[in-house]
Design a protein that fits this description.
Helix content: 40-55%
Shape: globular
Largest sheet: 8 strands, mixed
Oligomer: single chain
Strand order of the largest sheet: 3-4-2-1-5-6-7-8
Number of domains: 3
CATH topology of the largest domain: Rossmann fold
CATH architecture of the largest domain: 3-Layer(aba) Sandwich
CATH superfamily of the largest domain: Glycogen Phosphorylase B
Strand content: 15-25%
Structural class: alpha/beta
Length: 450
Amino acid sequence: MKPKRIVVLNLSETENDPRVRRFCSALGKAGHKVVAVNPRRDHAEARSQADGFEIVRVPDLTSSMERELEATVAQAPSVAKLMETVMPLLTRHFSIRERVQHRLQRKFLKGVTAASARTGLRLKIGRRIAARTEVKPIVEAWRLRWLILGGLTLTFEGRKHNPDIVWSNDSNTLLPGLALRDTAGAKFVFDAHEAFTEQLPPGQESESTLKLYRLLESTILPYTDARCTVCDAVGSFYSERYSAKPFTTIRNVPSRRFLVEPDLLKRRNSPRIAIYQGAYFRYRGLEPLIEATKYMRDTVLHLRGVGEYEQDLRRLAEDVKADDRLRFLPAVKVDDLVEGASHADIGLNMFPSLCLNTSFALPNKFFEYLMGGLATASSDLVELRAHTERYGTGVLVPSLEPEVIAEHLDALSRDGDRLDGYRETAWKHARDELNWETEQARLFSLIEAL
């Protein structure tokens, strides 16, 4: 494969994004020159070396950059044409009443900020009043405008590297990706980590945000030279909604180096252990899991995660008197997640179907459990069903009612031969196919075809 210069665009911190980091590292080790460009946050280093690639962090947008942005847009015909449609969405006419209210609110907030600086006090009440008196349509328009222009600042750094390929991660980097395609003559790849406009239940995302990103997706996708995604369902979503060309599925699977030793499969816990590993948030199915411990007789629950929501979960555990049927385990580093789960028997993926995006869920933890020699118990969602049935790794739980969860987990725990058969099957599929050493071949094929 001929070495290529690849600029990877990401609006989150690359160091904290396992998928982006994994892709960049694989391409860098294969001989390509890879530079990941993302915004600079929290006094992070402007540049750093990662495993086989470089990360460059660009400063946040300032008003002085806007002229430079205008010049960049002028040099990118596709972007200039698109911005003629985008900007009116963000600077539409507001009523006189809205404009006056917005101006007064800004003056009030400016006064609160000045008073805070003089007195050294945070003046929380003043800021709450300011937040409640916002003219939300105007604030939203300014937020989206700043987001669009801020994303375009990535092109300044990207052009310095004269890329052969520009790689846009998620829909919020499609516009700077298109700008680099135009100005650098680079091949253009889109990596959809999720169905971007379907991340929240209906009515919880502003119409202006949805309209903007659907416009960007529908307009820019035809310019892409290749497209990839995390699972077949997300690829089908984009192809069906926008009549886009096919997507290549490249799954978020761990490296084979994390695979546990086969002797571990001989272990027999009593009682059997079901484990959840991941972030502690609402809407992860954690509350019904804890409540299910009231009904469990043959299974105990272990939770290992991070997040402020842990305190709420611990209070819930006290309320349901989980006692010895539930343990909270300390967090571990990302590279220790497989080993950290390997003491258990069943890996849990109990996600509620809140929106279209969650119905497509195929979390990293699903594959980490397989690497650790665990069977799986998952919500009956599109991709979790497809992978559970295709690979024969465990059971599907039809609802998140605590009694139903407990019934399915206990039934699996009591049937030791079936459970351990799932464990062995899961481990073999992780060894033979569901590992990064195998999956990365799709990534290399995609790059080679450009």
